[in-house]
Amino acid sequence: MFRIVAERLKQRYRTLDWPRKEPALSPRYRGRPLLADADCGSCRACYAACPAGALLPRPEAPGRTPVLDMGRCIFCGACQDVCPAGAIRFSRDYRVAAASRGALLVRPEAALPGAKDAERTCADAAAVIGSRFRLFRRSLKLRQVSAGGCNACEADSNVLGTLVYDLGRFGIEFTASPRHADGLLVTGPVTRNMRAALLDTWAAVPRPRVLVAVGACAISGGLFRESADCLGGLGGASGENAAGLTTAGLTPDIYVPGCPPNPWSILAGLLALRGQGAGSR
Fold it and tell me: DSSP characters for 135-204?
């Protein structure tokens, strides 16, 4: 018993005082992308380098910096590495959640913002996202559904229950039954075999309910969106897959992009869902 107490004293307090204290991120971490409006001419290096098809041309401005779709982006940084104009870079901002699919489209700006402006990019997202869900401000129970995921997004969601993140201190918990839940947190591209289970689980959640899409696969199908065995995520970019199956009607209330998203991104998104910003408890 003495050894246990001594070890606890040695380890001290492990839970980060977030959101009052910013988390320490890996030097290799890539957060919200930032794009500068530049004349690309005939250069298509970023398009060729992107494995996820996340760069979209701008019809109104051909030959200039494209739009980046965070819903497809896997944050590999390949586009940043090959861009000769330096018009694409990834900030350190882990607050990437959005309230709509369109809000995940990052459009080029006249110039890349400074570091402080980049960190404030999503600071006011809570006011936009959480206005409809203040009912869950003090308590939010979620049922997690892995709809064919590779276990990366699932792992980064599961780690929120550890002592470093301590999800429970915010009144947010994962529950075993959808009938005891306030909503679903979905990961994976929604495979044909998981479609019925996902729809049944969603139907079992009592209203009012929320739907959270975590990861590129759940948002757009990710790298697997062209597969006949996947439905393109929640709602599906095409509405259905080759077999005619669809997830239309399952529109997320919040999208947390990434492959996988950083646990802090998921946590910040869940707080934003409840109308709480990264600077409030």
Answer: GGSS-EEEEEEESS--SHHHHHHHGGGSTTT-GGGGTEEE-S-GGG-SEEEEES--BHHHHHHHHHHHHH
DSSP classification of residue 222: G
DSSP structure class, residue 120: T
Q: pLDDT at position 128, please?
A: 52
Helix (H, G, I), strand (E, B) or coil at 272: helix
Q: How many CA atoms lie within 13 A of 251 on its CB side?
A: 5
Domains of the chain in start order, with CATH, are 33-94+104-123 (3.30.70.20), 128-273 (3.40.50.12280)
Predicted pLDDT at 121: 43
Do the strands 67-69 and 55-56 form a parallel or antiparallel pair, or are they unpaired?
antiparallel
The residue among 173, 98, 188, 99 whose CA lies nearest residue 143 is: 173
Distance of CA 143 to the CA centre of its chain: 17
In angstroms, the CA 184 to CA 210 distance is 6
Give the burial string for 233-268 (b: 16+ CB within 10 Å, else e): bbbbeeeebeeebbbeebebbbbbbbbbbbbbbbbb
What is the block-wise mean pLDDT of the chain (281 residues), using blocks of 10 residues? 66 75 90 93 94 93 93 95 94 91 89 50 49 78 94 95 90 94 94 91 92 94 88 64 54 93 94 64 38
Listed residue (231, 229, 249) closest to 240, CA to CA: 231
Q: What Å distances lie between residue 241 and 195, 200, 211, CA to CA?
A: 11, 19, 21
Q: Estimate to the nearest angstrom the gap between the alpha carbon of 186 and the chain centroid.
A: 11
